[in-house]
Amino acid sequence: MSRVIRREFDVEERIAEILKRFVGKRFNGVTVTEVVRQYDRGLEGRKADIAVLKDDGKPLLLVETKKEHEKRSPGAGKRFIPTSGEVLGQVFSYAAILKRNGVYVPFVATANDKQIAVFVVPEDIDKHVDWKAVDRRNYARALSNDYIYGVLRPRCLLFHKQIRFAEDFFAEILETLTGIYVKKYGIEEKKQPLHYSLIEDLRGFVDFLTPYIQDAITLGGKYKEEIAELVEDYGKTRGYTPTPEQLTREMAYVLLNKIVFYKVLERHYELEPLRQLYREGIASTVSQYLKKLSELFSKAVEVTRDFEPVFHTGICDRIDVVENEEVLKALDWLIELIDEYEIERFGDIVGYVYEDLIPAEERHALGEFYTPKPIAELIVKWCVRTPDDRVLDPGCGSGTFLVEAYKRLAELKLKRNFSKVRFVPRDVHEQILSQLVGVDINDFPAHLTAVNLAMRNPKAPSTKLNVVVKDYFKIVPGYKYLRPFEVKSVEGERLAEVSFKDFDAVVGNPPYTRWTEIDEETQDMILKLYRNTISKYGLTPQVSRGVEPGIYTYWIIHSTQFLKDGGRLGMIISDSWLQTKYGTGFFRYLLMHYKIHAVIDVSARVFPVPLIGACIVLLEKCPNQDERLNNRTVFMYLDISQGSLEVSEVLELLEKARASKLESHEHLFPSGAKALVRVYKQGDLLEYNDRLINLIFRADDILNRLRRHPLITSLATYFEPSYGNIVYLYLASKGVVRGVRNVGGNEFFYLSEKGAGEFGIPKEYLYPLLPSPRYLRFFTFTQDDWDRIKRDGGECYFFLCHKRREELPDPVRRYIKLGEGPNAQIRLRRRPGESVGRPVSESQAAEARLSRRDLFLDWYDLGGVASAPIVASRYAQYWHRFALVKFEVACDDDIMALIPRGDVSLDEDEMGALLAYLNSSFAKLYIESRGRTTGGGALALEANILMDMPILDVKKLARSDVERLASLFDKLEGGARRLGGADEVENVFGSVLAGELTDKGSIKPGVEGLFNTVIRDIDYEIAKMLGLEHLVEYVRQMVLDMAKRRLSRAGEADVGSLKGSEPAVAPKPARSRKSEKPSSKPPTARLDEWLKPQ
Question: Which long-range contacts (CB under 8 A, 24 or more apart) does 1007-1016 make?
């Protein structure tokens, strides 16, 4: 059989390189003494890929990244599923061999380039391997299925998750493992719920199969002739032509979906059992396996007289896979997994895997994110109140909200908890389906919704299901369409009248899409429908001014039209509106159309994509102004950094808060989770005109007091903030040039010393460059700092050419030619749909410069560099460092440059005093309350935010005060240099606070931190000057609370922090074998008891 080779990097090398950084470091009192590749001590001629050794010289952890017979195969690290029997057999055999030789290894891991699985090793592992198979190196038979599914997976699997090749990721793993090893943690405390490990299993199958499909249907990155025509037709009906990567991944997912659904039907109909066809000798090649599956799927349609669109899926039925024994094994493994766990018992587990059909960055652009079930449950339970409610989900995806609505309606109709209902009676099932309407622009998730709902009662599929494939904004409420909609059902597409008006509830998770990411046709439709409304409430997109409301604002405006009076809207939306100016306009729209019951901000990141923070809005449509004005609106911040919450607890607290006369209070839940609750009379909010985040944290009380103080002025008094200090960026920041605020091709304008030399560019056309805020680690930037960038081979020069072409030397003219024309060699990054990136000369910024020939001589001319004595990182995770520039450099647009106004002159001490204030907790409070939260919990500064920033008016201070603050700034800079930078959380906040603020597992112990030392001194000195000493600790605590809220988005998604009513599903009991009986002993909390021999 052929072998698929797609070498991107060596997984073993990448993991080992990261782990070696921890040599000599201690985790929970355990020192990593050595990291060894190809570890062979005591392994009887075998070699483990990586061994992490502890203080006694013995392994703490073994990591396998390849199957043994593929050790010399390039790319083999990608070619296995980390939890397959053969892979587990190999790594546990190594642990058993070492145990036989007197060395107990407490942990093992398997990893490829996508996933990692980490296990605790039972102390009696040597008693549970088949030694004959181990000696023959037949690892597929080294462990019995009963042992894998009855012991290892339920008791010993700590976690199985997507891998990140980053230091903090592996530091967290080591912190967890050493904590269990020294009995600081019990295994149950750290074990991942089975639900999530199964999700990774299914993702792993799709990841594994996709490249084998791609190699079968493509050649040289293009579709093979026999499928190219089908793809073209498919693109015409679908609205876009999928790339080979997209289509092959979808084919793998569809096959997974078919197998899962067949196994479900197998338990309800007289169908031939789908067995492990390769292991049982029924299929010996991949083509035979696929043919047999196709026969079974067709038979399922025939027997059930239903479900044709599940099993007959158009182009995805044309799946082809290159011949490889590993594919046969993977298909067998999937069937075995489904048999062992009856996956449908875990709810919409396949819906999670749907996320991975589209890579994360593309999902972000499309705004598609899967909603955790408890979030959907909370929203649906609040919105759906009677058994006859009609429910609309206008962006239904794979059906999470509609499934929860189904369960809620079933409970209301049958008067009992859904967990007590095995199958809803057929008549009730059909009633419920007729009350649910879903819309999705994409036919594939719409199809999944239909399947998901049908699985509520596989014996009673219904044609009454209404899932419409259409752009939501093209559905006008109450309009009588000339032709019926095409709707999806398990029986296929059908024509039906769907009434889009007077819904009792509209629920969902709108797309997380910015205005510029919406297609032009939909933009036009939104403006046509709601131009007056969005103008009235300040929601008109103004991209050049940075006003770019998310699509969810228009989504809710549109949804309002579908609700009946008194109907409820519940959605989880981006939390960005809470900290933007347009958010106040959106809030005003809500005030005028709804009783705003609650805005719930959640500390834990609930989506598995770091770019997304979210909040829940619960609204009741109300045309009566008096009722709206007298409504009590709750703003709630849920801090789930400690403990967890039940959906019922949140709903109960919400109702108590609305009924209470208390305006604000903190609530502590039994689990340790906390809620900050603010209650307002809705009428009192009509005149509110500031960022909504301040209705939760009330930073305005302090900031307004600052603004009224005679020693406070705005930053605009002294400086003009700019996105970088290159003249084009400065003019674009001011609006003099109407263009994007980037140079338009860093690939061309930013050069390393080596690159500049290779192109022969003379020094007069090169200007020292600060290319990224990651080099701005301290509170000053010096020539030594710049020299370090140059020595390390970084981009250290900026191509500065303010001359006409005819005046330029030949090397410069040749270099410019590389960035222009059809033969350009230096191009912009390729955008979706482009085969190659455009020439740099065709960037938006270049075109903007060409339109202003009065300022710029040509597209390559950026005008020059403006002097900026103070700069700050535009984005910061922990603390925005305002730095004194001691060496003149050109700054990238990700660096905010403070350019002095023409009449401003500050001496050295005044500059130092101002910098002390800019790096204080008072300035930090302003930034936390006004800054824009971005990906991974970072906080963004914008020019307009800096313009309005209250600062000390250093010209009005006594000279002695100026000198004291300047001295403290010097102390701050010295402290940062000693710590090695102010860009690490421990160095800013100290080890203790860093652990509370983040979920990093690798906090450096014993660091006191700048916040607890010199920044504290600065805070008290400023407060003393302003007469606010009594408020210092309040300000500092508020900074910590707001930072904690933001940073909680930066860790891994804590989708389990909010718990629904559905109990966790336990694995089925393992099949008993005569040779080993499953232990009846309950799980214990500590390692020594957990791992005692059975």
Answer: 1007/979, 1010/879, 1010/972, 1010/975, 1010/976, 1010/979, 1010/982, 1011/879, 1011/921, 1011/1036, 1013/975, 1014/968, 1014/971, 1014/972, 1014/975, 1015/919, 1015/920, 1015/921, 1015/972
